[in-house]
Amino acid sequence: MAVGPLAKVVYHPIAGFRLGTTEAGMKVSGRKDLVVMEAQAGSSMAGVFTANAFCAAPVHLCRRHLLSDSPLALVVNTGNANAGTGLDGETDAQTCCHELAQALNLKSSQVLPFSTGVIGEKLPIGKIVSSLPKAINALDVNGWEDAALGILTTDTRPKGASVQFQHLGRSISLSGIAKGSGMIRPNMATMLAFVASDVKCTPTLAQDLLNQAVNQSFNRITVDGDMSTNDSCMLIATGASDLCLDEDTDLVALFSHALTELMQELAHAIVRDGEGATKFISIEVLGGASSEECLQVAYAIAHSPLIKTAMFASDPNWGRILAAVGYAGVPNLDVNSLTIHLGDCLLVEHGGCAQSYSEAAGQEIMNKDEINIRVNLKRGDTKETVWTTDLSYDYVKINADYRS
């Protein structure tokens, strides 16, 4: 059960970009599990991928195709990660690209493959190839909602976002979908995400903008600290609006802001749907000497099983937060200067429990579905925010039964 209500997303169609979804029977009968996306000629694509050394075959192929050509199509399957599959996995990923390229009159290197699901099992390539025509026939500029469903695995609900902004009297649109629920940690947070816009820009600028947005969104979330083999985040700029980012610095700033906000919305949706999650937790660390030490502290808190289980129990056991800050590894940390807040309640000051703190006040905050932890290191002007979940009984159940 996800945290918070499911908001209805009204997707703005992106001129020059179509999505088609179908059922290939990859794992669960009757479930959408194969998505094809097509961008018009002249579009630019950029991607960010997992840092896992055992990255999946489609990740290897995506990286190569992005470097060697100008991709115009994407194919996504769920139910199978095509990771830990050796040379057979590479061959299967190449087959997906070849078959879709032939159908769309493209080169194989103009297709990017994506997979998500169980690691170590051979990709049922026959089911994918035989179902590609149905996905292609379904291609539509309004295909976002079906595609959001078609990329899910253990997710309990789809994740999408769409925004528009004005520039020089014209509208710029961005729409995106994502999947992710478990095996979520930073350094490409574990998920698939696809964002498209009708702006025009070079692949180089698209890559720079994507890197910046990822570092403030998907690289700031964690559910369980496990890094996937298949993390992929794509930005597609179709150029259909003829408004060129490379020629307008004001437009770049507006677009970067909109892209970051949209991707943060998708990232938050992943955390809210974290496996077994009952709490949405934001961890702010400010007053740091560097971004690195702020993130050290934030992730020490976010990855602590003791803190996460206390959150699930709604137990204001503030000593666990204090301990995590202490072992985060910040050099020469002055524990007598820093402060820790739980919501608007001061927990820690002068090296111990704040005199103003009461168990009742802490309990009131811990009973909420959305909780903010704020640490002020009082060492500098840097601040960072990380988003995470609690750790519940259902997380264990979901992952114990994952292959059943």
Q: According to CATH, what is the class of the largest domain? A: Alpha Beta
Briefly note the CATH topology name of the largest domain.
Answer: L-amino peptidase D-ALA esterase/amidase
Major sheet = 6 strands, mixed
Overall shape: it is: globular
* Low-pLDDT windows of residues: none
**N to C succession of SSEs:** EEEHEHEHHEEEHEHEHHHEEEHEEH
Number of helices: 11
Structural class: alpha+beta
Can you give me a brief rundown of this structure?
The protein has eleven helices and 15 strands.
Give the secondary structure arrangement, pairings included.
Layout: E1 17-22, E2 34-39, E3 44-49, H1 57-68, E4 73-80, H2 86-104, E5 111-118, H3 125-137, H4 144-150, E6 159-167, E7 170-179, E8 192-197, H5 203-215, E9 232-237, H6 249-272, E10 280-288, H7 291-302, H8 305-312, H9 318-327, E11 339-342, E12 345-349, E13 352-353, H10 359-366, E14 370-376, E15 382-389, H11 393-400
Parallel strand pairs: 4-5, 8-9, 10-14
Antiparallel strand pairs: 1-2, 2-4, 3-9, 6-7, 7-8, 10-15, 11-12, 11-14, 12-13
Keywords:
single chain, 404 residues, alpha+beta, L-amino peptidase D-ALA esterase/amidase, Ubiquitin-like (UB roll), 2 domains, six-stranded mixed beta sheet, five-stranded mixed beta sheet, 11 helices, 15 strands, globular
Q: What do you see in this structure?
A:
- The protein is an alpha+beta fold.
- It has two domains: 256 residues, L-amino peptidase D-ALA esterase/amidase (4-Layer Sandwich), CATH 3.60.70; 121 residues, Ubiquitin-like (UB roll) (Roll).
- Helix content is 33%, strand content 25%.
- It contains eleven helices and 15 strands.
- A six-stranded mixed sheet has the order 13-12-11-14-10-15. It has a five-stranded mixed sheet with strand order 3-9-8-7-6, sandwiched between helices.
- A hairpin with a 2-residue loop joins strand 11 and strand 12.
- Helix 5 packs across helix 6.
- The longest helix is centred in the middle third of the chain and has 24 residues.
- The protein is globular, with a radius of gyration of 22 Å.
- The chain starts with 16 loop residues before the first strand and ends with a helix.
- The model has no long low-confidence stretch (mean pLDDT 94).
